[in-house]
Every structure is written in C-alpha cells, then in structure tokens.
Amino acid sequence: MRVAYLGPAGTFTEEALRASAPGGVEPVPYPTVYETVMAVHEGAVKRAFVPIENSLEGGVAATLDALATEASDVRIVAEHIHPIHHCLLARTKLAEDEVARVISHPQAMSQCAEFLRGPLAAAERVTSVSTAEAARVVSESPEPWAALSSRLAAEIYGCVVLRTDVEDSNDNETRFVWLARADDAEPERRDKTSVVFWGFNDESPGALVNVLRELSDREINLTRIESRPRRVGLGHYMFFADLEGGAQEPRVAEALDALSARVEELRVLGSYASA
pTM here? Predict the structure, then answer.
C-alpha cells in the first residue's frame, strides 16, 4: 500500500510512520503537508500520514486547512501519537558555541525555543521546509551549521549528533492521522469523531456556547476544540472539534444533526479509533 508522508526521508513524520506501520507499506515522500493530503484526494496514493496536533504548539494549520477546504472527500481513519525528541545535528563534531547557523522547520524551532536562547543564542536561525531537509542541508555544507532534527535524519544523512532531547518539554508529543478517501474502507472500530463547522452568528454573545450545547445537552464530551480563520474577514472562524463517540452511534448522530441545523457548514472529518 502506497502511503504519502511529509518528506524528505528522515522527517519526524517518517519516524512516526515507521512506528505506526512497521511493515507492509510503501512510503512516498511529498514536499509539503498540503501536497501530502492532496495526494489522497487526487488518488495518487491509498493513504496519507500527516501531523495534526502537537502538545506544545497546538494544531497543524496546513493539515486542518486542507481537510476543511480542498480535500473535502478525505477522511481521518486512524490516529497515532508519537513522542518527539529533537537532536542537534552537525556535519562534524562542533562545540555548541561554534555553531554559526541553526536550521530547522519553524515548529521545531518553537519546540526548542528555550534551548536556542541558551548556548545557541548567537547563532543565526534559518527555517526549512522540514527537519529532514535541514539535516540534509547541514550534511552537505562545510560551514559550522547545525540542524534541529531527528535521530533518523542523522543516520540517513550521516550527521553527528551534538546533543539529544533539546525540546523544551519531555512531554513533547505529536498526534498523527491516517487519511483515506471517503469511499475507501471504513475503520473497524470508531470511538472518536473529528468535525469542522462554521457559519453561525459568531458576532453575538454566547453564539458558540449555544452551538456546542447540542453536544453538552446529550452528554457528549469534547476532547479538543480549536479555531482557524475562515479567511473572509476578521472575527470569522471555523471550529475544529474532537468528540468522544463514533458518528454512527445514535446519540452522536443526533447531536451532529442538531449541530448541522445551527451552522452553515458541518463536515465530519472522520470517525475512528482513539489512540
């Protein structure tokens, strides 16, 4: 089975994919999260594996926006939670105060902000499209550069690990999701549902509370809610929510029907087994 993931080889997404599916898949790297999601939408692959939420930085905007807008026929069919441990990598052995430039993905920079303010405070910071691409660039440069990346990337690109576990929190975790087309196989077990909704009188007091009451009145627990701009003007948002229970359960189905009647658009992004 061909599975799209955020490449190149050595990203944390590939590391998590290997842990989630230790065999039987053909990983296909894509340069961006958006293109990874759209690969399923366009039928180029059977599944995609993408990050959707980090315990330090919150939702992954590229994944959420793609699922809510252009990839409306793509569904979440499973999830996997993976610990994220950043390493400081270089082409050759360096003292930390010798590092002139640190390269990494913006999320990795944010997750290691305290470390970067310490021994690497004087180093230039340069962003990259992925942590693995940062490792590749560093591995090919004779300059005293370093990358925030994974152990897997160090192995793939022949880098030296200068320091391990440089993330700000030991509890740094990312939730990844498996994606499939809506007309593909349904998950065997479904006890969690993800939705996105928008288009209600969100400028009036208590509007969101009134919408969410359709869930609370039926004793359906929300495990996550997050807003993203609708890009139609300030103050207008789409809301992503995860809730306990499968969409096929009568109580959840009734709540989603009631919620749908209150908003302009409600989309079920997937109903799947909780990790």
Answer: 0.88
